[in-house]
Design a protein that fits this description.
The chain is built from 4 helices and 3 strands. By secondary structure, it is mostly helical. Bound molecules: zinc ion.
């Protein structure tokens, strides 16, 4: 069974990719997304989620996605290319980051141009702004 942190990470993958995962389950032979709803319902109700998340992960693996939920891990941010003169700070200070309003979910999101702030699949609330 996954520990708390790992469960929060897995929940974050579910939260960020809920529609992709739903589509994957619906296209599977069983053709239903009950497992996904069980995870979301458990998370919303403050119930035990490590078990349902484990089951979802195993089912995705059984469908042929060897990485299970981790197949939905975000791509790493592209490496910062280019030459930076010595002494300049290439990282903007206090870059805003958005996190899930529900502390059970470890999702975070960086502003992406004009893209609207996404909503947490668990609480339905917009991600809230935080600072690193
Ligand atoms: Zn979330």
């Amino acid at each position: 069974m996954a520990g708390f942190d790992e469960t929060a990470q897995r929940l974050a993958l579910v939260c960020s990719n809920v529609e992709a995962i739903r589509g994957r389950l619906r296209n599977a032979p069983a053709g239903d997304d009950t497992l996904l709803e069980e995870v979301l319902t458990a998370a919303r109700g403050g119930g035990e989620i490590a078990g349902p998340v484990d089951v979802l992960h195993a089912v995705l693996q059984a469908l042929g996605d060897a990485q299970g939920l981790y197949a939905y891990s975000p791509q790493r941010r592209p490496p910062d290319r280019g030459v930076h003169p010595a002494g300049t700070d290439r990282k903007r200070p206090a870059e805003p980051v958005y996190v899930c309003p529900d502390t059970r979910c470890a999702r975070f999101w960086w502003p992406d141009g004009p893209a609207p702030v996404p909503r947490c699949a668990i609480s339905g609330d917009a991600l809230r702004r935080n600072r690193l």
